[in-house]
Specification:
The protein is mostly helical and 314 residues long. The protein has one domain. Helices cover 73% and strands 5% of the residues. The chain is built from twelve helices and two strands; from the N terminus they run αααααααααααββα. Helix 5 runs antiparallel to helix 12 and helix 9 runs antiparallel to helix 10. The longest helix has 48 residues. The chain is globular.
């Protein structure tokens, strides 16, 4: 399995997510949208909790079972075909290249002073409203997104890939996709998305702490401030509403010497996130590049850690 995960990782670094190639996450998104529309016809008030549970259970079950069936069927044809499919499924759950590419694209647009294009591109990375953001807020949102997604876009998929192979990694991706689509706390989704959000918190609990463990090591290897990274992570991570997202965001704030957090808008409604970091320097374009460098280093370290543990236990 280690070799397959490494090949999947190399494919992600080389290709990212090609837009015209069939992708399980896109299929999950369409399934979630269809089932949500159907379930909401019958769910009112507190019944939305049950509808949200049914949605979550159904989507995760379908994702896991379909992945298993695909691997079983391809194995019936050829063992090599099964190996190729395993590598492909593992490749689709990793997001290192795409996360870096989107962040750097925002950076280039800011460098060219095209704020409108930067806001539009940023909307691919974040769930907050981006239409009226100034340059500093675009920079903050980009760095925060890179930090948070190190866990659910890289470390967590690798964790579940090493733990249970492609099918479990796909099931994790279903949980993460559900959370991103219905798990946020707006009035429309407070009940309906409650179960998806809590399950995502549970699924990311261990991976987020692995990310926190690897962050200072990545800083040491990259010549960043590992001490500040550790201290700010320990001091500020619990300020975040999420039990997991605060760990990489606080670690990133400490590593870069910037302050993250502040007022964000979601569907026109303001939401204040507590500040993290000491603002030793003002956030700037170079911090996007530094954040993506940390992203790659933590990705490599998580891959290395997973391989060592897998081989030692196996």
């Amino acid at each position: 399995m280690v070799g397959k995960i490494i090949l999947a990782f190399l494919l992600d670094l080389l290709l990212g997510d090609p837009p015209r190639v069939p992708h399980p996450v896109k299929a999950m998104g369409r399934l979630i949208t269809s089932l949500e529309g159907l379930l909401r016809k019958f769910a009112r008030g507190k019944g939305e909790y049950l509808a949200g549970f049914v949605l979550t259970f159904t989507v995760i079950s379908i994702a896991y079972v379909v992945a298993l069936l695909v691997l079983i069927l391809t194995n019936q044809i050829s063992n090599w075909l099964k190996v190729i499919m395993e590598i492909y499924l593992l490749y689709t759950v990793l997001a290192t290249k795409d996360l870096s590419r989107e962040a750097i694209c925002v950076s280039h647009l800011l460098l060219s002073k095209d704020l409108d294009a930067a806001r539009k591109r940023l909307s691919h990375l974040v769930g907050r409203d981006t239409e009226n953001l100034g340059e500093k807020e675009i920079l903050r949102a980009t760095v925060e997104s890179v930090a948070e997604n190190i866990t659910d876009g890289v470390v967590a998929p690798l964790f579940y890939a090493f733990l249970g192979g492609p099918a479990l990694a796909i099931a994790y991706k279903a949980i993460n996709t559900l959370d991103s689509m219905v798990g946020y706390g707006s009035d429309d989704y407070r009940r309906f998305g409650w179960f998806s959000a809590r399950l995502d918190d549970l699924a990311n609990f261990i991976p987020a702490r692995i990310t926190g463990f690897l962050f200072p090591i990545a800083c040491l290897l990259l010549g960043k401030d590992a001490r500040s990274c550790t201290l700010i992570m320990l001091r500020d991570s619990r300020k975040h509403l999420s039990p997991n997202a605060g760990i990489p965001e606080a670690a990133m704030a400490g590593a870069l010497g910037v302050r993250l957090g502040g007022v964000n808008f979601y569907q026109g409604i303001s939401n204040f996130r507590p500040f993290m970091g000491n603002a030793k320097v003002e956030i700037s374009l170079k911090h996007i590049r530094e954040a993506t460098a940390i992203l790659y280093m933590v990705t490599f370290l998580s891959l290395l850690l997973g391989a060592v543990i897998y081989l030692a236990v196996g």
